[in-house]
Amino acid sequence: MTQELVLITGGTGFVGYACVVRALDQSYRVRLAVRSQNSIEVIKNAPSCRPRLDSIEFVAVNDITQEGAFNEAMQGVSYVIHVASPTPRPDMVGIITEETLREHG
């Protein structure tokens, strides 16, 4: 039986990494959308991921704000867990948080 594939964005962040580990624990194959080679190395060297690298693949998404940025990454996935956030400036974090709470809180 083929394992279902889940795309996870923001996998090197606190919440995203917890999602990666949980998906692997539940026997999903994981495709991680990453912005840099350094992000790939972080995941490959993480103790919870290292023994399960055969269930993890990576796709580069350099600018998540671009239209169609995730087209390639979405191919063949059953589920998406999108926890990445474009924060070009540190002062934007508060604004993004406020908007999210206003819309969904």
Which labels suit this protein?
single chain, 105 residues, alpha/beta, four-stranded parallel β-sheet, globular
Account of the protein in words:
There is one protein chain. The chain has 105 residues and is of the alpha/beta class. It is built from 4 helices and 4 strands; from the N terminus they run E-H-E-H-E-H-E-H. It has a 4-stranded parallel sheet. Strand 2 (29-34), helix 2 (37-44) and strand 3 (56-60) form a beta-alpha-beta unit. It is globular, with a radius of gyration of 14 Å.
Layout of strands and helices, then pairs:
Layout: E1 5-9, H1 14-25, E2 29-34, H2 37-44, E3 56-60, H3 71-74, E4 79-82, H4 92-104
Parallel strand pairs: 1-2, 1-4, 2-3
How many strands?
4
Strand percentage, roughly? Answer: 15-25%
Order of helices and strands: EHEHEHEH
Portion of residues within helices: 25-40%
Give the CA-CA distance, first to last residue. 39 Å
Total helical segments: 4
- Indicate the structural class: alpha/beta
Q: Which whole number gives the mean pLDDT? A: 84
Summarize the biggest pleated sheet.
Answer: 4 strands, parallel
Shape: globular
